[in-house]
Amino acid sequence: MKPDPALTQRMGFFLVPHFSMMALSSATEPLRAANRVAGKPLYSWHLVSADGEPVSSSSGFALLPEFAMTLAPEFSHFFVVASIGVADYRNQQVFQFLRRYAASGRPLGGISLGSMILARAGLLDRRRCTIHWEALRALADEFPAIEVCRDLYCVDGNRLTCAGGTAAMDLMLELIARQHSRQLAVEVADQFLHTRIRSAAESQKMAIEWRYGVADRRIVNAITLMEQNIERPIPMKTIASLVGISPRQFERMWWKHFDMRPSQFYIELRLKAAQKLLHESTWSLLDIAMRCGFTGASHFGRCYRKLFDRTPGEERNATPR
Questions:
Q1: Mode of pairing for the β-strands spanning 128-130 and 108-112
Q2: Structure pTM?
């Protein structure tokens, strides 16, 4: 199906090393399906990199872009696709390229941790945006003036951001619906057995009931309190009181469902939050320890090694860069 320059929207995707193949596929496949369902070339899609050389995804597959950024044509929409390993990404030439594109006024987006790249280029100032839930805290802390939300995707004027993964499909379905018709978006979704087009404001994370296989609302409420209070842990007696049971009942209930004390469950939640920060931020080990509710780096290190069988420093050194 040959694109018609007068009718076809040219969509560009800038690949940052270690980008998510899932996010890229979720963003591009709906465009292909829209062309197929409509029977005409509504979209074309093109890969761009900093130098035109192959870019490896987080899963190890390498893709060969069509264009280096300096030779890229004009696009109707342009998206930065990134995933793990962007903690130290500070490519000033890329930032300058993105600023030049933004000056055109055409829609510019970030997929998954692509939002972090846009923020570092100064292109999300005074904007509302989203990012993958693992990097929400890192983005908000690095850029306190940016309004960071937990939505699946976010459209703020000509800035489009999404959390990555399958959320990229929901963003593209929204674009297809806006640019063409809701019916076309529904038919495209059906092509991928995507039985429900999710709204922007839906939660990024699976409900606690499904994640942990629990139905008891007291447990759900307790885990919610723990997840919302990572930096300043709440005493177990307080959590028990807030969910309406005695501390003794609280302990018994946790042993029954998780085969551990609630305090250990809480520590593991905080350590897993720390693990994400080790992968996605450049904060010091002490900063990460304090942000995850530990009294100091040594206490943090002991707990971390006990759970993960390696030190926080070893964890950070093993992170792809």
A1: unpaired
A2: 0.75
